[in-house]
Amino acid sequence: MALRLVQVNLKAADDEKVGRFWAQALGWNSRSAEDGATSVTPDGFTWPDSHDVVVDVIRVPDPEAVSYRVHIDLATTSRTHQRELVARLIGLGATSADIGQGDVPWTVLADPEGNLFCVLEPRDVYRDTGPIAAVVVDCASPRSTAAFWAGALGWTIADETEDFVRLKNPASGPFLEFSRNSGAIRHRAHLDLAPDDQPAEVQRLLDQGATFVNHEFRWAILQDPEGHDFCVL
Questions:
Q1: Which of 43, 114, 144, 228 has the greatest count of CB atoms below 10 A from its CB?
Q2: What tens digit of pLDDT does each residue of 40-90 get?
Q3: Which of 74, 110, 66 is nearest to 92 (CA)?
Q4: What CATH number is associated with residue 75?
């Protein structure tokens, strides 16, 4: 496919600190190739030829956000693993978070700067994803939003209901999921896509319903039909 989901872009006041947290959380490595940007990648990762979905932490002056529309779900292999992982993450600086989730089998945490994420109970569907089970996008219309992204990336629908759609990466790795939540206002995490041909892919996305935001830097900033920002690198 000419366009690949390559990373989740997180915002932080201290990118190196947050990058170290996520590297320890995932068992990966953190590296600051330039001031204000820390990449979190697994062993053996090669840019841009890897099929891994990694984490990129970018320093911004004010990372606070009203609400979150993109977050990461972490996979576990057993209830014991889940408990141990939660305890280890809290030891690394994560905190418990109450977003009104109630009595659920997963645990909601925030990283040292408040980026929300979930540690899931063991589920067979995530058995082979690696440490990141899924990248989850909150949206008002999961089906139409997922249809845009399936067309953008060439991923296939693995599960679908009125309130939830799961897209599968044909090259393995984490799922891309869309969950109904119309209360989200704005976000501090977005998706970054790597193209074979940036101008051609930007035009293709615009033809499929994306909206152009700007191209002031090397990357182009677009929005999907529901207003989620993303970048074509």
A1: 228
A2: 999 998 886 677 899 999 998 877 653 558 999 999 999 999 999 999 999
A3: 110
A4: 3.10.180.10
